[in-house]
Amino acid sequence: MKAWAKHLIGFGLTFLPSIAQGAEPSPFPLIQRGAEFCLSRHYDEEHLRRNPKQLVTSIQFMGRDAWRDHFSSEDGVNLDVSVQVGFRDMSKQLVLTGSCWVSDEAIPILRCKLHPYPTDFPDIIGQGLYLKDLGRGRIEARATSDWKVIRVNKEPEGYGEAAAEDRYFILSASDPSACRFSRKLWSKKGPTKTFIGTLP
Prior knowledge:
The protein has 200 residues and is mainly beta. It has one domain. Helix content is 10%, strand content 34%. The protein has 4 helices and 10 strands. The strands form 2 sheets. It has an 8-stranded antiparallel β-sheet with strand order 5-4-3-2-1-8-7-6, with no helix packed on it. The protein has a two-stranded antiparallel ribbon with strand order 9-10. The radius of gyration is 16 Å and the shape is globular. The model is unreliable at 1-22 (pLDDT under 50).
Protein backbone atom coordinates (compact mmCIF):
# COMPACT_ATOMS: atom_id res chain seq x y z
CA MET A 1 0.00 0.00 0.00
CA LYS A 2 1.32 3.43 -0.93
CA ALA A 3 2.16 5.75 1.96
CA TRP A 4 -0.64 8.24 1.22
CA ALA A 5 -3.23 5.46 1.07
CA LYS A 6 -2.51 4.47 4.66
CA HIS A 7 -3.83 7.84 5.77
CA LEU A 8 -6.80 7.97 3.40
CA ILE A 9 -10.16 7.58 5.14
CA GLY A 10 -12.67 9.52 3.01
CA PHE A 11 -15.80 11.56 3.65
CA GLY A 12 -19.16 10.91 5.23
CA LEU A 13 -22.32 13.05 4.89
CA THR A 14 -25.72 12.38 6.44
CA PHE A 15 -28.54 14.75 5.52
CA LEU A 16 -32.10 13.60 4.82
CA PRO A 17 -33.76 15.83 2.21
CA SER A 18 -37.16 14.83 0.85
CA ILE A 19 -37.17 12.56 -2.20
CA ALA A 20 -39.73 13.12 -4.92
CA GLN A 21 -42.33 10.37 -5.08
CA GLY A 22 -41.32 7.77 -7.62
CA ALA A 23 -37.77 9.12 -8.00
CA GLU A 24 -34.85 6.74 -7.58
CA PRO A 25 -33.20 7.43 -4.21
CA SER A 26 -29.64 8.70 -4.13
CA PRO A 27 -26.87 6.45 -2.78
CA PHE A 28 -26.27 9.26 -0.30
CA PRO A 29 -29.31 11.29 0.80
CA LEU A 30 -27.72 14.75 0.95
CA ILE A 31 -26.70 14.73 -2.72
CA GLN A 32 -29.44 13.73 -5.16
CA ARG A 33 -28.81 12.08 -8.51
CA GLY A 34 -27.93 14.62 -11.18
CA ALA A 35 -27.64 17.44 -8.62
CA GLU A 36 -25.20 20.34 -8.40
CA PHE A 37 -23.86 20.71 -4.85
CA CYS A 38 -21.57 22.83 -2.68
CA LEU A 39 -20.29 22.49 0.91
CA SER A 40 -18.09 25.33 2.11
CA ARG A 41 -16.43 27.18 4.97
CA HIS A 42 -14.56 30.47 5.02
CA TYR A 43 -12.80 31.42 8.26
CA ASP A 44 -12.98 35.08 9.26
CA GLU A 45 -10.11 37.14 10.63
CA GLU A 46 -11.27 36.75 14.22
CA HIS A 47 -11.22 32.94 14.02
CA LEU A 48 -7.77 32.95 12.44
CA ARG A 49 -6.50 35.41 15.04
CA ARG A 50 -7.66 33.06 17.81
CA ASN A 51 -6.06 30.08 16.01
CA PRO A 52 -2.67 31.39 14.83
CA LYS A 53 -1.33 27.91 13.94
CA GLN A 54 -4.20 27.11 11.58
CA LEU A 55 -3.07 27.29 7.95
CA VAL A 56 -6.37 26.53 6.20
CA THR A 57 -8.52 29.62 5.64
CA SER A 58 -11.26 28.19 3.41
CA ILE A 59 -12.61 24.93 1.96
CA GLN A 60 -15.07 24.34 -0.87
CA PHE A 61 -16.35 20.85 -1.76
CA MET A 62 -18.36 20.74 -5.00
CA GLY A 63 -19.69 18.77 -7.94
CA ARG A 64 -22.27 18.57 -10.74
CA ASP A 65 -24.36 15.79 -12.28
CA ALA A 66 -23.99 13.75 -9.11
CA TRP A 67 -23.86 9.95 -9.08
CA ARG A 68 -23.40 9.55 -12.83
CA ASP A 69 -20.80 7.17 -14.19
CA HIS A 70 -18.91 9.50 -16.51
CA PHE A 71 -16.81 6.66 -17.88
CA SER A 72 -19.48 4.42 -19.36
CA SER A 73 -23.12 4.58 -18.26
CA GLU A 74 -25.68 6.65 -16.36
CA ASP A 75 -25.98 4.03 -13.61
CA GLY A 76 -22.68 4.55 -11.82
CA VAL A 77 -22.29 4.63 -8.04
CA ASN A 78 -19.31 7.00 -7.82
CA LEU A 79 -19.53 10.73 -7.10
CA ASP A 80 -17.07 13.03 -8.89
CA VAL A 81 -15.93 16.00 -6.77
CA SER A 82 -13.40 18.81 -6.67
CA VAL A 83 -12.16 20.63 -3.59
CA GLN A 84 -10.53 24.06 -3.27
CA VAL A 85 -8.51 24.93 -0.18
CA GLY A 86 -7.09 28.32 0.78
CA PHE A 87 -4.09 28.81 3.09
CA ARG A 88 -2.99 31.84 5.08
CA ASP A 89 0.61 31.58 3.85
CA MET A 90 -0.20 31.06 0.13
CA SER A 91 -1.99 33.31 -2.35
CA LYS A 92 -2.84 30.42 -4.68
CA GLN A 93 -5.53 27.94 -3.68
CA LEU A 94 -4.97 24.19 -3.70
CA VAL A 95 -7.31 22.33 -6.07
CA LEU A 96 -8.01 18.62 -5.65
CA THR A 97 -10.08 16.25 -7.78
CA GLY A 98 -11.35 12.79 -7.05
CA SER A 99 -14.25 10.39 -6.73
CA CYS A 100 -16.31 9.18 -3.79
CA TRP A 101 -18.37 6.12 -2.98
CA VAL A 102 -20.76 5.08 -0.24
CA SER A 103 -19.54 2.44 2.17
CA ASP A 104 -21.87 -0.33 3.27
CA GLU A 105 -22.61 0.75 6.83
CA ALA A 106 -25.72 1.30 8.96
CA ILE A 107 -25.15 5.06 8.65
CA PRO A 108 -24.11 5.90 5.06
CA ILE A 109 -20.51 7.12 4.87
CA LEU A 110 -19.23 8.81 1.75
CA ARG A 111 -15.57 7.99 1.19
CA CYS A 112 -13.48 10.05 -1.25
CA LYS A 113 -9.96 9.77 -2.62
CA LEU A 114 -8.50 13.11 -3.76
CA HIS A 115 -5.39 14.20 -5.67
CA PRO A 116 -3.98 17.70 -6.30
CA TYR A 117 -4.62 19.26 -9.71
CA PRO A 118 -2.31 19.62 -11.43
CA THR A 119 0.32 17.24 -10.06
CA ASP A 120 3.17 15.15 -11.42
CA PHE A 121 2.60 12.53 -8.72
CA PRO A 122 -1.07 11.41 -8.85
CA ASP A 123 -0.23 7.94 -7.56
CA ILE A 124 1.80 9.24 -4.62
CA ILE A 125 0.19 12.42 -3.32
CA GLY A 126 -3.37 12.10 -2.02
CA GLN A 127 -5.70 13.50 0.61
CA GLY A 128 -8.68 12.01 2.41
CA LEU A 129 -11.46 13.66 4.39
CA TYR A 130 -13.95 12.14 6.80
CA LEU A 131 -17.21 14.06 7.14
CA LYS A 132 -20.06 13.46 9.56
CA ASP A 133 -23.42 15.13 10.07
CA LEU A 134 -23.62 17.40 13.11
CA GLY A 135 -27.24 18.32 12.44
CA ARG A 136 -28.81 21.67 11.52
CA GLY A 137 -26.94 21.84 8.24
CA ARG A 138 -23.46 21.49 9.72
CA ILE A 139 -20.84 18.95 8.65
CA GLU A 140 -17.63 18.05 10.48
CA ALA A 141 -14.79 17.25 8.09
CA ARG A 142 -11.54 15.61 9.18
CA ALA A 143 -8.45 15.71 6.97
CA THR A 144 -6.21 12.66 7.13
CA SER A 145 -2.94 13.80 5.55
CA ASP A 146 -0.54 16.68 6.08
CA TRP A 147 -1.65 19.68 3.99
CA LYS A 148 1.96 20.87 3.75
CA VAL A 149 2.78 17.68 1.82
CA ILE A 150 -0.39 17.67 -0.29
CA ARG A 151 0.00 21.22 -1.59
CA VAL A 152 3.59 20.83 -2.89
CA ASN A 153 4.12 19.26 -6.33
CA LYS A 154 7.01 17.00 -5.44
CA GLU A 155 7.46 13.45 -4.24
CA PRO A 156 7.14 13.54 -0.43
CA GLU A 157 9.95 12.33 1.79
CA GLY A 158 7.46 11.62 4.57
CA TYR A 159 3.72 11.41 4.84
CA GLY A 160 2.36 12.34 8.26
CA GLU A 161 -1.14 13.11 9.44
CA ALA A 162 -2.71 16.55 9.25
CA ALA A 163 -1.64 18.89 12.04
CA ALA A 164 -4.16 19.21 14.85
CA GLU A 165 -4.99 22.81 13.86
CA ASP A 166 -5.77 21.78 10.26
CA ARG A 167 -7.50 18.45 10.83
CA TYR A 168 -11.11 19.31 11.70
CA PHE A 169 -13.39 21.75 9.87
CA ILE A 170 -17.09 22.61 10.05
CA LEU A 171 -18.67 22.96 6.59
CA SER A 172 -22.17 24.07 5.66
CA ALA A 173 -24.38 23.16 2.73
CA SER A 174 -24.39 26.23 0.49
CA ASP A 175 -25.98 27.42 -2.72
CA PRO A 176 -23.87 26.07 -5.63
CA SER A 177 -23.07 29.65 -6.64
CA ALA A 178 -20.99 29.92 -3.44
CA CYS A 179 -18.44 27.46 -4.84
CA ARG A 180 -15.90 28.39 -7.51
CA PHE A 181 -16.38 25.75 -10.21
CA SER A 182 -13.30 25.63 -12.45
CA ARG A 183 -14.22 25.84 -16.14
CA LYS A 184 -11.36 23.46 -16.88
CA LEU A 185 -12.89 20.84 -14.60
CA TRP A 186 -16.63 21.44 -14.81
CA SER A 187 -19.13 22.20 -17.55
CA LYS A 188 -22.76 23.02 -16.82
CA LYS A 189 -23.58 19.36 -17.47
CA GLY A 190 -20.92 17.82 -15.24
CA PRO A 191 -17.18 17.01 -15.16
CA THR A 192 -15.13 17.80 -18.24
CA LYS A 193 -12.77 15.47 -20.10
CA THR A 194 -9.93 17.26 -18.30
CA PHE A 195 -11.48 16.32 -14.95
CA ILE A 196 -11.98 12.71 -15.97
CA GLY A 197 -8.35 12.61 -17.08
CA THR A 198 -7.21 13.47 -13.55
CA LEU A 199 -8.77 10.35 -12.05
CA PRO A 200 -6.50 7.33 -11.47
